[in-house]
Amino acid sequence: MGKYDVVIIGAGPGGIFAAYELVQREPQLKIAVFEAGNALVKRKCPIDGKKVKSCISCKTCAIMSGFGGAGAFSDGKYNITNDFGGTLYEYIGKENAVDLMKYVDNINMKYGGEGTKMYSTAGTKFKKVCMQNKLKLLDASVRHLGTDINYVVLENIYEELRDKVEFRFNYCVDRLEIIEGGYRVFGNEQYDDCSKCIVSVGRSGSKWMEEVCRDLKIPTKSNRVDLGVRVELPAEIFSHLTNELYESKIVYRTEKFEDRVRTFCMNPNGIVVNENTNGIVTVNGHSYEDPEKQTENTNFALLVAKHFSEPFKDSNGYGESIARLSNMLGGGVIVQRFGDLIRGRRSTQDRIEDSFVRPTLSAAPGDLSLVLPKRILDGIIEMIYALDKIAPGTANDDTLLYGVEVKFYNMEVELNEHLETLHKGLYVIGDGSGVTHSLSHASASGVYVAREIAEASRA
Asked: What is the pLDDT of residue 49?
């Protein structure tokens, strides 16, 4: 048993930046970080494309868990905006939220990100072009670190913290208990006590977070789930957008149902990858700053958000059921040519190999219409034709669609303006709170709570 001033559960962006800020402001505090996954240096997905071609369901997914969280092997995009990425601004104010995201950016520059480019939609001609074609380009400044530079930044921040904070890796926290003067954190058949506890478990910790909220009677409300596909096409088709903006967040409202379809996580010259969440294999994308690691393709997600009301409230369960269906039909991720989808036929290995677009992920050729609900698939098809007007070639027959891509969001935990639950000293930050949905927002929430704790410790 240990006794700490602060225990942080989860070493994703929120947890890392909370630890960093606490060390900077109150170095005398005794701080521990408990993480279910590995240290950064030991995080390695066994899929090599040769001996291991698909997910083997490791005990903890090296892509999703470990130091750096699910963002460690992402393409390292930090979007500085309140237009998307979460609703942190509703708790701490818009100006404060943006200032904290800029502060996070400065730290990333200090620890290895210097020289990377900051992109911006300000003053771009593409806003007008999008509006003329029934599309909306969202405002943002985007720092692109790349998967490789993002890794370097995390390495350097870990070196800064390792002797000042106690890290426990491969340490699964089972439950929390309220005790006099703080909290008892149970894990690996032992427990530790702390005065304050910061929970930062990310999206992969959604089920655990639900259990904690139920046990401690913390009110929650259902959040949304995003369902869709990952599109892969020749990089030249989107180069006029990606060269200027890098990440273009574009929203389309469908004519048939007036659903909103949006682009997400654009990776110029990137790769498509598997992702394992609670044993379900889905798809995502990465990109690199190093030209030698870049490919001839660009990939991005097309997602439709689904909200549910009474009597059904399990949005994540809905998303999981669709992802499991995809896994059942394809043994993992399914890939389909857009031309095959439009013609109502499944893709075959021969047609994929004969395609002008060379896939960057080994996936099972199949038929996405057997997986995704018609309403969602209709919206995605409409969006592809809309994007074809501003990026001709998007709707080519050989454009590849990987499915399914699911973004699970934790149910939204009831928090006050300090990001604190109804139990004093118990904070919930990052994507595990249901409040943030991005690297920049999650990191900013960690800094914010650390400053709240530091200020309280001086009082």
From this structure: 67
Collapsed DSSP state (helix, strand, coil) of residue 141:
strand
Give long-range contacts, CB 8 A cutoff, 24+ apart: 306-310. 306/224, 306/225, 306/226, 306/227, 306/376, 307/222, 307/224, 308/222, 309/222
Sequence letter at residue 47: I
Residues paired with 33 in a beta bridge: 8, 167
Calpha distance 419→425 (Å, rounded): 10
Side chain identity, residue 149 = I
Q: Say whether 157 sits in a helix, a strand or coil.
A: helix
> Which tens digits make up the pLDDT trace of 172-211?
999 999 999 999 999 988 999 999 999 999 988 888 999 9
Q: Coil, helix or strand for 53?
A: coil
Backbone angles phi, psi at 195, to 5 degrees: -75, -40
Q: Are 229 and 215 in contact (CB under 8 A)?
A: no
Contact status, residue 71 vs residue 443, Cβ threshold 8 Å: no
Strands 190-199 and 182-187, by their bridges, are antiparallel
Alpha-carbon distance 247 to 268, whole Å? 9
Output the six-digit token pair for 324.
């499991």
Report in angstroms the alpha-carbon separations of 42 from 10, 65, 155, 204, 386: 16, 11, 12, 19, 43
Residue with tokens 């369901």: 57
The sign of the CA dihedral 440, 445, 113, 80 is positive
Cβ 216 vs Cβ 423: under 8 Å = yes
- DSSP β-ladder status, 3-9 and 190-199: parallel
The single residue listed with the structure tokens 């998307």 is 84
Reported as a single tens digit per residue, the pLDDT across 59-116 is: 788 888 999 998 888 778 999 999 999 999 999 999 999 999 999 999 999 999 999 9
Q: Classify residue 459 as exposed, middle or buried by CB count within 10 Å of its CB (0-12, 13-18, 19+).
A: exposed
Angle formed by the axes of helices 13-25 and 94-108, to 10°? Answer: 90
Distant-in-sequence, close-in-space partners of 348: CB < 8 Å, separation ≥ 6 = 365
Neighbours of 240 (CB within 10 A): 13
Other residues' Cβ atoms within 10 Å of the Cβ of residue 255:
12
Contact 69, 205 (CB under 8 A): no
Please name the residues in contact with 326: beta carbons below 8 A apart, sequence gap of 6 or more.
282, 333, 334, 371, 403, 404
Listed as ranges, residues in the chain with pLDDT below 50 are: none
Report the predicted TM-score, pTM, of the whole model to 2 decimal places: 0.82
